[in-house]
Amino acid sequence: MAQGLxxxxxxxxALYFVQGLPFGFQATALPVxxxxxxxxxxxxxxxxxxxxxxMLKIFWAPLVDRYGSERFGRRRSWIVPLQFALAVSTALxxxxxxxxxxxxxxxxxxxxxxxxxTMDIAVDGLxxxxxxxxxxxxxxxxxxxxxxVGMLTGxxxxxxxxxxxxxxxxxxxxxxxxxxxxxxxxxxxERQHTxxxxxxxxxxxxxxxxxxxxxxxxxxxxxGWLLIFIATYKLGENMADTMFKPFLYDAGFxxxxxxxxxxxxxMLFSIAGSVAGGFLASRIDLLRxxxxxxxxxxxxxxxxxxxxxxxxxxxxxxxxxxxEHFFGGALTTAMFAFMMSRVDRRxxxxxxxxxxxxxxxxxxxxxxxxxxxxxxxxxxxxxGLAFVLSVAxxxxxxxxxxxxxxxxxxAADP
Length: 414
Prior knowledge:
Largest sheet: none
Number of domains: 1
Number of helices: 18
Shape: globular
Strand content: under 5%
Radius of gyration: 20 Å
Structural class: mainly alpha
CATH class: Mainly Alpha
CATH architecture: Up-down Bundle
CATH topology: Growth Hormone, Chain: A
């Protein structure tokens, strides 16, 4: 199995990369475009609700787990059509400039998120099918780094290049990248890599069986603490990140500068942090890795508050941005590896989707209300609140450490 690990990591990297393209644009570039078009901070915060398919995907995850063609590939039979639909929506976005076609653009971003979120269910299921316990650290490096390189491309490099290639060129390039990923997916023989897996991969559980196994896991003592732990780990960070780009714009920095610093350099440091977090998760206890990286992540969140009370300079912004992305990336990879280790592999796509949805449910409302809070107070207040939440989160390590043995035992129970 170890001999096929490079091939597994390559296909997983490509699949997560394509999911990161539209989300990188929405998370990093869209707030700046909306602000330059005159939208209020409240509107920018509410625009993050376009990612709502990522919150709701658990409701159709059992269908993705249940149905799929064994001949074409159980997961691939979902992934390829969704990649095609994503390519169509990004192509149409080339003709929806935010200053003239704002509503169509927002609808298309919602469709992109729907395609990517549904694809993510199948890709997560594929990852659970393919990766052994000892491969989770490296597997989640491919997962997180692939996704973040996609975000770097969609929210940083292409936005930076849009100064030359224009709005249409940005989305045409994104469409071509989605097409290239589809070609990689078509060349991958899923059946060859899952043929030696357990019966859980070969036999499709019924919808009722999927829901019964999921219900059983949810009733185990300690499962509630795990869900709270996952839901709140990005609460403060997401609140600060949503307002950080408008803060930089209001401080006098240009869109291209912000795209380069946050969307490109910041994402490069996030990728480096993800690699570091993955290797850390491969060498020490997964929960300990999450705790260590969560402590380090709180430091640059405090740095964002510091920028709001001093005169932000280019050097200060770059330093805080790179540190925040590095430690945030390390925490994300450690957390995703920890989440995957708690999954019942018989219902891998549905169970991991539940945990991933809980993660989004926890952090997205913070982004939605961040603009409302900032409009009513100040940037320094929202960044200070984000730091307090990041520190308070560390207290959840105590009950979770006591309860994790039970939830881990159930995930491994056949």
